[in-house]
Design a protein that fits this description.
There is one protein chain. This protein has 265 residues and is of the alpha/beta class. The protein has helices spanning 16-26, 56-61, 75-83, 98-107, 121-136, 160-172, 177-180, 232-245, 255-258; strands at 6-11, 31-37, 52-53, 65-68, 88-91, 112-115, 143-150, 181-183, 197-203, 209-216, 221-228, 251-253. Strand 5 (88-91), helix 4 and strand 6 form a beta-alpha-beta unit. Helix 3 (75-83) runs parallel beside helix 4 (98-107). It is elongated, with a radius of gyration of 19 Å. The mean pLDDT is 93.
Length: 265
């Protein structure tokens, strides 16, 4: 007896990543595209047989899992909808507020939620390595700086991935990122504070995404850098996460779970 294919929906199906997600889902032998949401009926390059809805509740009704790369302004509304469903949620939206994150955690009490600032396997490993370096290189001797570059259309800064790197470093150093974060230095700022985690955001052209975590002491520098050449890597990782979600219990998961990595000690 064969099981039914996994029904994958795409929130924001007409967006840049949404269109790539359509292609990735349609390549899966054990999944079908159940439909998507869009603000308009502009569905060029989509088959006429793909249902497009104007709200998340309608898409939930026809899906087993939904991949969501929409805007942070509607993530809270989506979280409330998923909490009252039986549908898994793969969430890649960034720029989320603390209040919205609480709503996401509430949704994860009833359904599987796979949340990541970046669904690239390489970035997932970079986050882990940044934490390992931060644990071994104390803030008293090694300054931590994070530099990220994105296309001119990106609306949030620092990027969600940059903040995730910062969180990994802060956690490894047993501090809260909000207490040590320095972003957008300008003017006479004074000497760099010991233990600060600095952020610099560059915007221009159509760069998909570049991130560097840099540790600097008086005598050496260690850098980790990841460059995404094609945003399809995010779509591939998100679809991989959607397939992984099948049959999983409620909970808040990340790409480390999808990749089968052991928890960080």
């Amino acid at each position: 007896m064969t099981s039914s294919p996994l029904r994958i929906g795409i929130a924001g199906i007409t967006g840049r990543v949404g269109r790539l997600l359509v292609e990735e889902v349609q390549q899966q032998e054990n999944a079908v595209l159940s439909g998507g949401t869009a603000l308009s009926k502009d569905i060029n390059n989509l088959s006429d047989t793909v249902p497009v809805f104007d709200n998340i509740d309608a898409l939930i009704q026809v899906s087993d899992v939904i991949i969501d790369f929409t805007n942070a302004a509607i993530t809270g509304t989506h979280a409330k909808a998923f909490k009252n469903s039986h549908v898994a949620w793969v969430l890649g939206t960034t720029g989320i507020s603390e209040e919205t994150q609480r709503l996401i955690q509430e949704a994860a009490s009833t359904v599987p939620v796979i949340q990541a600032a970046n669904f690239s396997p390489g970035v997932t490993l970079m986050l882990r390595l940044a934490g390992e370096l931060a644990k071994a290189l104390p803030a008293t001797h090694y300054d931590a700086e994070i530099v990220e570059t994105h296309h001119r259309q990106k609306v949030d800064a620092p990027s969600g991935t940059a903040l995730a790197i910062g969180e990994s470093i802060a956690k490894a150093r047993n501090v809260q990122l909000k207490d040590v974060k320095e972003s957008g230095r300008d003017g006479v700022t004074g000497a760099r504070k010991e233990g600060a985690i600095g952020f610099a955001a560059l915007r221009g052209g159509q760069i998909v995404g570049e991130h560097s975590a840099i540790f600097l002491s008086d005598v050496e520098e260690i850098s980790l850098t990841h460059k995404a050449f094609d945003r399809r890597i995010f779509a591939k990782g998100a679809v991989r996460s959607a397939l992984w979600s099948a049959g999983k219990p409620a909970g808040l998961y990340g790409m480390t779970h999808v990749l089968g990595l052991d928890p960080v000690q």
